[in-house]
Amino acid sequence: MVRSKDDIIWKAVLEEVFEDLLRFIYPEADQVFDLTQPVDFLDKELSELYPEPQESNDNRFVDKLVRVRLRNGGRQWILCHVEVQKKNEKDFARRMFTYFYRIYDRYSCPITAIAIATGRYGHNLPQSYIFESLGTELHYKYNKICIRNFSDKELMANKNPFSLIMLAAKKALLTGRDLEEMLLKEKVAIAGLLLKRGYSQQKTNAILRFLNNCIRFKNPETYITFEKEIDQLTSKTNTMGMKEAVQEIKQIEAEEALEKGFRKGRMKEKALFVERLLEMYEMSDTEIADVADVTEAFVKRLRKRVEK
């Protein structure tokens, strides 16, 4: 299953702000977890427990399994299972429970689960899984946070870095007239808050990258305007490393644009090669696909065009 860009940016930012997510969910996080110690991301172990299903593109999800040290003198660590869910998938609660019993069956350790609902109707995402059959009952409940349940004022006032992640994801759901102008205003406002907070360069960089990819514009000129606004903000702040962070984001975007252009150019070359094969030789679609290193569907589309 090919991951969407939303999945990729969420996975990336969670690894940079995971301790902040724990503090956002659990007010007593620093007393429960030993956050002075590094956490361990067990993505490989999780994929072995629950191989990715062959789902449609609309049902993609982000999942993380993280080992966190505890402060008490008993158990030394706890596993945190995190899901970022955009769609209100009907089997979501059952899947959360399936993760739980597979994780517990392998590790036999304390587990806490968190569901982050990022969709427009995230409040409808279930927070528990209930099973009943002939007197046998099971009720599995997990933590759930919905971005739509937090006001802008609340998120802007919260100094936890994860609050800016929530705010950016919430603004990405905006609709209405003059949307481009509205998104620009909100994106600049979030960037301004980020610059004032004085987080580490690495964390600032990660949040800025998330913001840049989460709130996207249709008009290329709006990106230019946003970059100018960021340049003005960085010139007014003494935040260590911010200009370097912004430059890195711009460099990454430039590289992505070059890669996209390269892929587009390569596909044009392949299309011309396939068309020549169709015109000059009596070859099957499968044979041409093998020679040109493309899919049969790609060859079929070009064959229709050539035969017109």
Short description:
The protein is α/β, with parallel strands linked by helices. The protein has helices at 5-16, 18-25, 29-32, 43-49, 92-107, 152-157, 161-171, 179-197, 201-214, 220-235, 242-280, 285-292, 296-307, and strands spanning 40-41, 62-69, 77-85, 111-117, 128-133, 136-141, 143-146.
Textual characterization of the structure:
By secondary structure, the chain is α/β, with parallel strands linked by helices. The protein has 3 domains: 1-149, no CATH class; 151-240; 265-307. The protein has 13 helices and 7 strands. The strands form 2 sheets. It has a 5-stranded mixed sheet. Strand 3 (77-85), helix 5 (92-107) and strand 4 form a beta-alpha-beta unit. Helix 1 (5-16) runs antiparallel to helix 9 (201-214), helix 9 packs across helix 11 (242-280) and helix 11 (242-280) packs across helix 13 (296-307). The longest helix has 39 residues, at 242-280. The relative contact order is 0.08. Mean pLDDT is 82; it is low at 54-60.
Indicate the low-confidence ranges by residue numbers.
Answer: 54-60
Share of helical residues: 55-70%
Gross geometry: globular
* Beta strand %: 5-15%
Q: How many strands in all?
A: 7
Helix/strand-derived class?
alpha/beta
> Secondary-structure element sequence?
HHHEHEEHEEEEHHHHHHHH
